[in-house]
Specification:
The chain has one helix and nine strands. It is mainly β. The chain has a single domain, classed as Immunoglobulin-like (Sandwich). The strands form two sheets. A five-stranded antiparallel sheet has the order 4-5-2-9-8, with no helix packed on it. The two termini are 21 Å apart.
Length: 120
């Protein structure tokens, strides 16, 4: 997933896990980490959403997202997937889409949707 923001924005991302047949699935754990870059993140209390917060400079931040589809850790791991957040000038951002979606694994799909983009 690629997301483009200015250095004054943050984006709320929500994970929507699905079974291999496309039915809603339970998410027992979510882990989001920064692989590289100046951005930050803020996990939300619902355990399915997180803010990606742009860094101060025009640069990329790469995040890794994994989830657990079973209460036993490691038994039904979802992902990993990466999100690349591109921070750029407002003029450049006007020409790029902000939204991306979903990844597959052997147990089903864990979709991610951008819920809203807002100023920090």
């Amino acid at each position: 997933m690629d997301i483009s923001l200015t250095n004054e924005q943050r984006v709320l991302v929500t994970v929507h896990p699905l079974t291999a047949r496309g039915n809603p699935a339970t998410l027992f754990g979510l882990n989001v980490s920064i692989i590289s870059g100046e951005g930050d993140l803020l996990i939300q209390p619902d355990g399915r959403s997180f803010y990606l917060i742009s860094g101060p400079n025009e640069a990329d931040t790469v995040y890794q997202v994994t989830g657990e589809g079973d209460p036993t850790p490691g038994k039904d791991r979802l992902g990993p997937d990466t999100i690349t957040m591109h921070v750029m000038a407002t003029v450049q951002l006007a020409d790029r889409p902000v939204v991306g979606y979903s990844f597959l694994n052997r147990h089903g799909v864990m979709g991610m949707a951008v819920d809203r983009v807002e100023h920090k």
